[in-house]
Amino acid sequence: LSVASVEDPVVMSKIRQNLREKHARHIADLRAYYDSEIQSLKQQLESSHRTASSEDLKKINQSLADRDWCNLYVLNRCDQLDAALNEASARIKALENKNNLLEKQVADWRERFYTISNTSKVLQERLEEMRTAHKEKDNTISRLKSRLRELEEAFQKAYKLSDNKNTRLQEENKMFQNLLGEYESLGKEHERVKDTLNTTENKLLDANTEISDLKRTILKLEAQLKQVEHENTLKLRH
Known about the structure:
Layout: H1 3-7, H2 9-48, H3 54-161, H4 166-237
């Protein structure tokens, strides 16, 4: 048998079934053989009981006693082999159940690991998107600051040039106030984005930590699985 055939549960079940059937047939044949031998000796004893001498009767009785002892030894040995076979079958069944349980646990941990890995990838993508958006908003804030400085310079220049341009100054002041409000709004939004970014980074760290724990657990379960498979193979060979 190849190694793959030995590891196949279906093949091993068929092998055990064939061994049980052969063992049962062997025991039945032995019992039938010794029953026929005993019956034949009894018939010989009955046929020669009247004509045989005392010495012949002693030899026949001794032969019957020896055969009865041999028959009893064979029956006891058959019972021992049957008990050993049942014990080995129970041990193999227990190892198979343990093996199946470990395989199921490994599959569950792998599925959970894949799920967390996918979640980590999604969080990483969102983190990159938020970083890009944060960079764009920083650029917008820089442009607004530059525009604000230009307006301040224009306002100061206009104030120095003429005090009679109140209307224009009011308009520029209104524009300045609007830009200042927009700048403050963008500053608040920038802070919110930074808080969200920090929260996402913390979640990503937690996910990476859980992934590392899951990897260690999977490696431990796979080591246990290999150990059980090795014990199962040794039992099967025995």
